[in-house]
Structures are given as C-alpha cells and as structure tokens.
Amino acid sequence: MGRRRREPGGLGLFAVLLVIVALALTTLASRQARSPRTRIEADPTRPEATAPPEEPTPGDDTLRVHFYDVSQGLAALIDLPGGAHVLVDTGDAPAREGCGEDCSHAHAHLLERLAADLGGSSIDVLWITHQHSDHIGGARDVLQRLPVRAYVDNGRDLQKSEVRSVHEAARRKGTPIETLDPTHRVLGTLVAGPARLTPVVPDAWPADCARDPNDCSIGLRIDFKASSVLFTGDAEREEERILPLSSPVSLLQVGHHGSQTSTGEAFLTRVSPRYAVISAGHPGTGMNADYCLPRMSTLERLNRALGGEFRQTLLAYDGRVSCRHAVDEGWVAVPVSDHLWATERDGDVVLVTHGDGVFVRETATH
Predict the structure, then answer these.
(1) 323 lies in which domain range?
(2) 352 to 64, 79, 120: CA distances (angstroms)
(3) Within a domain: residue 195?
(4) What is the CATH classification number for the domain harbouring 165?
(5) Between vectors from CA 140 to CA 135 and to CA 141, what angle results, nearest 5°?
(6) Domain presence at residue 366
(7) How many domains does the chain have?
(8) Three-state SS annotation for the chain
(9) Residue 50 included in any domain
(10) Theoretical Cys-Cys bridge with 92: which of 45, 134, 146, 156, CB 3.0 to 4.6 Å?
C-alpha cells in the first residue's frame, strides 16, 4: 500500500466532510429558518463516543438515490435529507478505446442529468470506489463542469494517466483530494442531519487487490432512520468476505455490475437486502460486448435473497458460449424479483425512501 496522498493544506477526510455538509445544511437552514445539525461521532466501537441519532426536522424526511443509465459503468447521485449531495462514481470515459458512441452517449447523459438533478447545487462529495475506467472515467469532466466540494478515492494507481488527469482537474478547481484506505481512515460516522455516512473499508486489502483493482474498492453505507443504502463498487467475493458490515441493508448496489465474481451467497446472507440495483450495459453494446453482464448465476442468488413477486424478466448471460460480442446466443430472459432494478432494462432508476425501510421507484419526468 502506498502512503497517504493529501493535497497541501487539505483537511482530514471527515473534517472535509463535516465542513462541506455543514455548509450545505447551513444554506438549507437559512431557507427554512432552522439550524443545521451536523456532528461527527468518533470510533463507534467506543460507547462513550456514540450518541443516538437526532430527530429529523420537518422537510428532512426523504432520501433519494439516482442510479444513472451510463451503460457499462456506475454513477449514482444520493440526495441526502437536509440538502447535501454525494456522487458515487462517474461512469466511463467518453472516448474509451473500443467503446465507440456507447460511452460518449452515456457520458453526455450523465452530465445532463447531474446538471438537472442538482439544480445548481454542489456535489458535496465525489466518491470514487476504485480507479477502473467505468467508475472514474467521467470524473474529470464532472470536476471541470460542476462544483465539487471534496473528492475521495483509494489513493491507488496514481501513475495512471486517467487518475492523474482527474487529480489535476480537482487541484485546478481547488477541490480537496482525500485518500481512504485500510491504513488511512477515520473510524467514525458522519451525521448529516438525520442521515449517517459510513465508509466501508476492510482492515487490510485482500491479496487480490495487488493485481485486481476491483478488490480495492472503497464502499459507502448511508443510513437514514430505518432505511440504508450500501455501495461496494466492484468488490469481489474476497473483499466482500472481509468488509466490516455489522447489520443488514435496505438497498444494495449490486457489485461489479452483476458479475458472477461478486454478490456471493455469504455476502447476501450478511447484508440481507430488501432491494437491489444492477448498473450494466445492454447485451453486445459498448464495453458490455466483452463483459456480458449481468450473469444468470448472480440473478439467481439475488432472487433468493430478495424474494417478492417475479413478474418481469431481465436479460442475463448464462456462460454457455464465448462472451465476446455475444448478442443472441448465451443471453436468457430470467424472471427476477420485483425488488430488483437494472439500468440495462429500466434506464435511470430513481429510488426514494422516507426512512421506513421501503424504497419506491420515482416516476421519470424527463
């Protein structure tokens, strides 16, 4: 593991988060004539450092998650109750080699939707789970075109040109850059109004991390009353096994776009999700022509975990033939739980909860 990288004059990760979320809540408070309620709890394993969540004030009753249709990639905007915004990953680079117009169209869609959904507000935290192109590829343009108050990644692959260009874009905009990894983390929970944001990082990277950036993903959990959301990026089963997860979650971002190497049975047993979203491309298009995701075996595991009705189907690759450019043969319409959404089938997926553990899809208005 490399040493922690911090820009000169930068604050610690949670100090940065505290400042930016406090600013966001203060702005909202001035509009609603109420005071912000933001604090940091220190190490949650020490009883003296914890405190019960504060009761939400009127208007703080909604958490919204936008899973954008960015083809074979991940980009999700979280609107926190209280007015702050977190963007987890940024989809693929618009000019990625071998992707063609699929990536450029997906990137343009992401920027368009972010501008509309933010409505002039800042992205308070840009959280990059890991440095694969389909997660960090759009970050440079996001930083250049939209106000971002803090940028977080795992501090790896700093020699790669794509990562260097993202960090340079952040520096030029004056956006603090922070590294979160097993060696450099603050054990604690940021409380932003009625919501809690908790990094999900193992005590040590799994052995596969050295050769597979997927297993160096930094996860994020968001809790709002009885509702919770878990992002794991592309964490595969080796990292899933050692992620510090103490309680079930309501909504799961399905790891690695529904690959068979993620979302294992043991992991699903631990997190016991009620709802899940897969962000993946259409069969045979863009980068998914080479990846063929999601996989049938993953959908079968998700169906067993989620339950519910099975009134819709989702195309999945069954692995019987070579993946490369498979369009018809090898793809099967699998009946899936009605608690499972996929950008491949559903386009942008916007889910809303009032903190009761229930997520409902919001009807698109565009």
Answers:
(1) 13-43+61-361
(2) 4, 10, 21
(3) yes
(4) 3.60.15.10
(5) 105
(6) no
(7) 1
(8) CCCCCCCCCCCCHHHHHHHHHHHHHHHHHHHHCCCCCEEEECCCCCHHHCCCCCCCCCCCCCEEEEECCCCCCCCEEEECCCCCEEEECCCCCCCCCCCCHHHHHHHHHHHHHHHHHHCCCCECEEECCCCCHHHHCCHHHHHHHCCECCEEECCCCCCCHHHHHHHHHHHHHCCCEEECCCCCCCCCEEEECCEEEEEECCCCCCHHHHCCHHHHCCEEEEEECCEEEEECCCCCHHHHHHCCCCCCCCEEECHHHHCCCCCCHHHHHHHCCCEEEECCCCCCCCCHHHHCCCEHHHHHHHHHHHCCCCCEEEEEECCCCCCCCCCCCCEEEEEECCCEEEHHHHCCEEEEECCCCCCEECCCCC
(9) no
(10) 134
> Would you say residue 67 lies in a domain?
yes
Tokens of 111: 């920027």
At 100, is the pLDDT very low, low, confident or very high (cuts 50, 70, 90)? confident
> Closest Cα partner for 3 from 168, 184, 167, 159?
184
Minimal CA–CA distance to 19: which of 40, 44, 48, 49?
Answer: 40
CA distance readout (Å), 315 to 55, 74, 257 = 43, 18, 13
Model pLDDT for residues 265-278, shown as the tens digit of each residue: 999 999 999 999 99
- What share of the chain in percent tops pLDDT 90? 72
**Do strands 349-353 and 360-361 pair parallel, antiparallel, or not at all (unpaired)?**
antiparallel
Mean pLDDT of 181-206: 82
